[in-house]
Amino acid sequence: MIRFLGRHWITSLLLVCAGVYTLAALEYGIRVRPQPQSGFVPFLLGVLISGLTGFVLIQALLRGENSGKEEKESLPRGKFFPFLLLLLAGTACFEYLGFCFTSMAVIFLSAYLMGLRGWWKALLLAVLATLVADILFAGLLGVPLPGILSSHLLGGN
Amino acid sequence: MFEGLILGIQTALVPTNLLGCFIGCLVGTLVGILPGVGVSGTMALLLPLTFALGPTGGMIMLAGIWYGANYGGSTTSILVNVPGEATSVVTCLDGHKMALKGRAGAALAIAAIGSFVAGTFSVVGLNFFAPPLAEVALAFGPPEYFSLAIMGLVVLSNLSGSSSLKSFIMAFLGVSLATIGMDNISGSPRFTMGFSSLFGGIEFVPLLMGVFGIAEVIRAFCQPPKGVSSIIRFRFWDLYPNREEMRRSVKPIIRGSFLGFFVGLIPGPAAVMASFASYGLERRVANPPEGFGNGAVEGLAGPESANNSACGGGMVPLLALGLPFSPPTAVLISGLILHNVTPGPLLMTQRPDLFWGIIGSMYVGNLILLIMNLPLVGIFASIARVRPAILMPLVLILCMVGAYAVNNSFFDIWVMVIAGVLGFLMERHGYEPAPLVLGLVLGNMMESSLRRSMVIFEGDWLGFFHRPISGTVLILTLLVILLPPILRSVRQSQKKIHQGE
């Protein structure tokens, strides 16, 4: 059973989330008359999602899906985890270290990880793309990006 | 109507709007050419740019990306045998074969002319259908809107992905995500888990960028898209189809234009369905159909026209009812909301410049695409050689900046990242993102319509069936849900009987 749920972990996770959502909806009230309360629609949705996910799981169980396909696809391999790490670190750095540093680091590392031959090509791409994005978003569109270069280069704020 | 159209073309020709149209067509063509870069993701990515162009210019640009992608998709399908978009898969069958036979220029020209004729035809159709429908829709109440939204979600879920059940789950998940934040009717916060950033609800734009943009980048990381090795060369003066090719492509273009427009009205991946349906139709009409798959002009002209015409059809429910029935139209509606423009039947009277401007820009855009695509086709084709290792890091950083730019909020970047990772993982398990996005976009409207309807009907669910429009729409929706499994079981039982005999 645990192996089965592990193979269908996304559906199982959805079922758990839908269950929690349904229970939380009860807190907001689900009465329909005289007018529907805040929890009415979420409760309906929660029940629907729980029912459908449960049905998908039962269907899979009855079919006896023991093919290796689902198992193989349950978690991606290869560069997924390094990329996930890069994505999470990049998002955290964006807030604390600013746009320029993060952008250059993320572009450099992701280009390198994707197999761009020659570290200098990745570096050139990182610098140029960051500069263009900086000028486009901060300079032209006025987006207040944290830690930008154009404010220093163009003498703005 | 013609006054509106003149206003639309005048609006489209305002320099800012013309610039938006040009950018949209150019970016759309590039998106169509580059495999692994999706239309909806790019539209979401460029949403912040609409602030610089204003609501009308911004929407014109976004619409340009959508229909421009269909033009671009044919280029790589014909010259490289790599479809840039799903809509151009069918084009590979005969378009590339024509190119291999030395008729690459003619194939590109027929695809461009067919796309132009169909695009223009669909705009004429949009011109005739959208305004009367918008006037009729003024009489719609909450029950009608709820029924139409339900039908849109159900039909889309039935048509997208490998499993309708999983698509339904995604659609309902999208609607439930829309319930997070301030309740529109009572004004009290729901499901915010103490995060003040969730009081305003989950923003569409970061979520769209996540499920279409970030997920695409992750996919490219895990499994890089097929690179382009060789491109078939041709000369500019080869871009003239001969008389026989032109004669054979006229009827398929007309049939594809009609078929595409009406398929475009159906919720779901209309452009893809239209191109496949048109190919099937042309095969059936052809006498004999042997040439198909071997470079038949009809097999190229019909589907290329149909997928372009479907865009115009898809704009009808968006402009007339304010209901998006496909991911690109969901992005368009997000753009309207972002600019504080209320989509719906009142758009035509409250913002005629915007309503007619989008329609007018599609005429102008089709002309721009024709002019741009024929002479520059060689350059566009060589762009297909840009490696994912260069392209994807740029998409990634643009997504991050784009998500931040909407509200200048770091929280939105986290929403985007989480949506991207979950979207990627869910898609691997057969959960398509399109119904989720549509559910999120339609969610607020659906909830308030349902709650208002329940007040009108005093809690009686059957009230929906007492009103002619909502009743009919709901019955049709039930048929869409129930008919396929019934037909399947009937077919299976018939098969068993035959086997028994």
Question: How is this structure best summarized?
Answer:
The complex is a heterodimer of chains A (157) and B (501). By secondary structure, chain A is mainly α. Chain A is built from eight helices and no strands.
List keywords for this structure.
heterodimer; A: 157 residues; mainly alpha; 2 domains; B: 501 residues; 20 helices; 2 strands; globular
Characterization of the model:
The complex is a heterodimer of chains A (157) and B (501). With 157 residues, chain A is mainly α. Chain A is built from eight helices and no strands. Chain A has two domains: 2-73; 80-153, no CATH class. Chain B is an all-alpha fold and 501 residues long. In chain B, 75% of the residues lie in helices and 1% in strands. Chain B contains 20 helices and two strands. Chain B has helices at 2-12, 15-33, 39-45, 50-79, 89-137, 142-159, 164-178, 204-222, 243-264, 270-285, 297-321, 327-338, 347-350, 352-373, 377-383, 388-407, 410-428, 433-456, 463-466, 468-500, and strands at residues 181-182, 189-190. In chain B, strand 1 and strand 2 form a beta hairpin. Chain B is globular and about 65 Å long. The model of chain B has no long low-confidence stretch (mean pLDDT 83). At the A-B interface, helix 2, helix 3, helix 5, helix 6 and helix 7 of A face helix 7, helix 8, helix 16, helix 17 and helix 18 of B.
